[in-house]
Specification:
This protein is mostly helical. It has a single domain, classed as Four Helix Bundle (Hemerythrin (Met), subunit A). The protein is 75% helix and 0% strand. It is built from four helices and no strands. α1 packs antiparallel against α2, α1 packs antiparallel against α4 and α2 packs antiparallel against α3. It is elongated, with a radius of gyration of 14 Å.
């Protein structure tokens, strides 16, 4: 997967908070995987919802899109295979986020 960058990368006023958000993403990906593995669909939906909302705010519309698709799959009661696929896609995207240093 290509590196994922914030649309705010050239905005010095946003970069500090974007860096803080990006630094949390590996842990958030691990939390998504843990919730899926534990079969905790309520927690998985909560995490996906949080990321869906935050992604766009920090300049990552791709996160909003992918996590929104995961959240919708959970709401629709999709098969576990679909949930695994969408969780894996979300985690890969979160781990592909990079932030350039100032």
């Amino acid at each position: 997967m290509d590196p994922v960058r914030s649309i705010y990368e050239d905005d010095p006023d946003m970069m500090e908070i974007v860096r803080e958000f990006a630094a949390e993403l590996p842990d958030r990906a691990a939390a998504l995987e843990s919730a899926l593995q534990a079969g905790d669909h309520d927690q998985l939906r909560t995490l996906a919802h949080q990321l869906k909302g935050a992604g766009g705010g920090y300049g990552y519309p791709q996160i909003t899109e992918v996590c929104g698709a995961l959240e919708q799959a959970l709401r629709d009661g999709c098969e576990v295979a679909v949930l695994k696929e969408r969780t894996a896609a979300a985690c890969a995207l979160l781990r592909a986020v990079v932030v350039s240093e100032a």
